[in-house]
Amino acid sequence: MSNSTSFEVPQSFSNAQQQHQQLCNQIQFHNRQYYLLDDPQISDSEYDLLYRQLLAIEDIHPQLVTEQSPSQRVGGEPIKAFTSVKHAVPMFSLDNAFNQQDLVDFQRRIHDRLKQTDAIEFIAEPKMDGLAINIRYEQGNLVQATTRGDGISGEDVTHNIRTMHSVPLKLNSPDIPEILEVRGEVFITKKDFDFINQKQLANGDKAFANPRNAAAGTLRQLDPRITAKRRLSLYLYGWGEISADWQQPDTYLQTLQQFAEWGLPTNPETKAVIGAQGMDDYYQQLLARREALNYEIDGIVYKVNRIDWHAPLGFTAKFPRWAIARKFPAQEKWTDLLGIEIQVGRTGALTPVARLEPVEVGGVVVSNATLHNQDEIERKDVRVGDKVIVRRAGDVIPEIVGPVLSFRKSDLPKFVMPCRCPECGSEVIKDGDKAVYRCSGGLFCPAQRKRALHHFVSRKAMDIVGLGDKLIDQLCDLDLVKHPDNLYQLDVATLAGLERMAQKSAQKVVDAIEISKNTTLSRFIYALGIPEVGEVTAKNLANHFLTLEAIMQADTEALLSVDDVGEIVANQLQHFFAQPHNREVIKGLLDAGIHWPEITHPANTQPTTNSPFTGKVVVLTGTLHQGSRSEAKEKLEAVGAKVTGSISAKTDYLIAGEKAGSKLSKAEKLGVSILDEEQFMQMMETEHG
C-alpha cells in the first residue's frame, strides 16, 4: 500500500511518539463507537485519514509499532453481551489500495515473491458494505455463526443467522466436507433498508444512518424474532477451517462455484480479471454501475485466483499478501446544516433546500442539498444546527441521509413550512392529501410566471395564436410581462423589437390578443390556472354560478354543490380567490376588456334535444376522422351528456376512434358499451321518440 499522505510526519522521535499515542487513542475510541456501540462519531473517510496518518508515522518510526497499536489489530473487540468464540482460522482484514498505482505495486510484489513474469489472474468482487460473518457447518449442519470481532475471536450470533432464509440450515450433498467454515458479508439491500427505516419511524424509534449500521444492529439483537423481520442478506467470499480430507478445487473462483452448487449464496458480480489493467477495468465498470446495484458497496476486493499461490505469498502481521481492496471515492461525508431555505417551483410547489457547510463528497464540493418536502424532513428528523450525513452518488443530486444524533443539541427546534410564499407573500396551502405545499398566488407569483402565462394563452384557455412558449419566455426575461393582464398592454412596436419577430408577425400577435378578449366564462376560469380546476370543472362552475363574481364569493357549502367539485377543489378555489394579488390580476384582465356572453340558463336545465346521450356519462378515446375529440365533446355536452376523462363503472359509453389504448381494454373489462365513430355519428342524429 502507498503511504503517501498530506499528513506531515514529525521527524523528532519524541514528537512522533506523542502524535502516535494521540492517534492510537483516537482510533481506539472510534473503533469502539463503530464496532461495539453502532454509534460512529466520525465518517468513514475521516477514520481512514486517521489510520493512514498512523501508518505514515510507523513507516518512518517502526520502533513505535507494538502489539497494542491499532495497525496490528484486525478489527474491534467483541461486545460482552454475546458469547465470545475463538475462530479456528483467524479472520484477517485486507490491505487497502487507494489508486491504480497501488494495484500496480500490489501485482509487482506478487511477481517478485513468486518469481513470476506472466500477468496474474485475479478474482474481482464487490466490497460489500456490511458485517463479516463466519458460518460453521459440521456434517452438513449449521452449528455456529460468529462475527469477525477482532479477527481472533468474535460474537456468537447463530440464533440470528438461522433466521436468514438465504442461509441453508443443512447442506445436502455427498461431497460436503465434515467441517466447513464459509465466510461472507451480511448486508441489507437498499430497498429493505428503506422499509426498515419506515418501520422504525412508524414505531417512534430512531432511524438507522445507513445499511451497514442497520445490518450490524440487527445481527446484535438478542431476540431473533426482531432479526427475522429485518430482511438480512448474505454473499460469501471465502472460507475458514475445512476438513483436510476435502479435495478443494485449484482456484478461488472454482471454490466459490462449488459453494454455490451446495446452495450457498455467492455474488454474481464476481469475475476473473487479468493483471493490473484488468483490475482497473473492473473497478471503472463497477464504479459506473454502483448506484444501479441493489446493495451498498464501498470498493472492490482482488484476490489471487490460484490457491496454491496463497501459501507462498503468505501474510503480513495483519493482511494476506494475496488479496487487496481498492476503495471507491467517499460518497458520504458529515457536515453542518446551516439553514433550510425554500425554493418555489414553476408549479408553485415549495421545496425545502438545505444550506450546508461546504464539504467535498465524491469529488464535488457540496454546499446545498434538497430535502424534498416537509414529510421527508420529519421522517429524517433533520434540524438546523445538526451535523448531517451528506450523500452524493455519481451524478445524482446530493441528499441528506440523516442527522448524526450524538452531536445534536437538545434545544434544536423542528422545521416548519412557512405559511407565506417567500417569492410573493401569498398564502401557502397543503396540496390535498399529498406531501406538497403550494403557493396560492398563481397569477402573481414570480416563480410561477412563465408556466402561468403558457397556460393562460393555450388553445383551450384564452387561445392567443402566435404567443408561443419561446415568445412568452422572452417577454418574461425582459421583464415586459409579469402577469397575464400585462399581455393586453403589449403593442406592435414592443413585439417587433424582440428576437425572431418582425412588424407583420408582431401585428398578428396583437390582433390575436385583441380577439381573445371575446371568450366564455368557463374558458376564462380555466385560463386562471387554479390547481385541480380543469376544463370540465370550469364549465360546471360557470353553468352553476352563472357569473365570475358568484364563483369568487362562493363558500365551501356552495362550491361542494357543484358537480365534480369535492373538498380539495373547493379548498383550492377559495384559497386562490382569497389572495389579493390574484384578484388584482383578474381586475386588470377585466379592465383590459375581456368579456363573455351572459349565461342565462340555470345549471339543472335540461337541453331541449332528446338524444340517446342525454344524461349519459361518455368517454372519448383514440383518433376521430370526422372532427376532433374536442368538437365531439362539445356536441355531446350540447345534448346533455357528461364527458369525462376516465373509464369507471359509471361510464355509459366509450367512443373509440383509431388507436384506442388502455381505455378500450378497461371498458371491455367493465362491460361498458363501446361505439366506433360511425355508430357515434348515427346516434347523434337520432332522437328518442
Account of the 3D structure:
The chain is of the alpha+beta class and 689 residues long. The protein has five domains: 13-73, Helix hairpin bin (Helix Hairpins, Orthogonal Bundle); 85-327, DNA ligase/mRNA capping enzyme (D-amino Acid Aminotransferase, Chain A, domain 1, 2-Layer Sandwich); 332-407, OB fold (Dihydrolipoamide Acetyltransferase, E2P) (Beta Barrel), CATH 2.40.50; 430-591, 5' to 3' exonuclease, C-terminal subdomain (DNA polymerase, domain 1, Orthogonal Bundle); 617-684, BRCT domain (Rossmann fold, 3-Layer(aba) Sandwich), CATH 3.40.50.10190. Helix content is 35%, strand content 19%. The chain is built from 24 helices and 22 strands. The strands form six sheets. The chain has a five-stranded mixed sheet with strand order 2-11-10-3-9. Strands 14-13-12-15-16 form a five-stranded antiparallel sheet. A four-stranded antiparallel sheet has the order 5-4-7-8. Helix 12 runs antiparallel to helix 13 and helix 16 packs across helix 17. The chain is elongated and about 95 Å long. The chain starts with 12 loop residues before the first helix and ends in a 5-residue tail after the last helix. Residues 1-5 have low confidence and may be disordered.
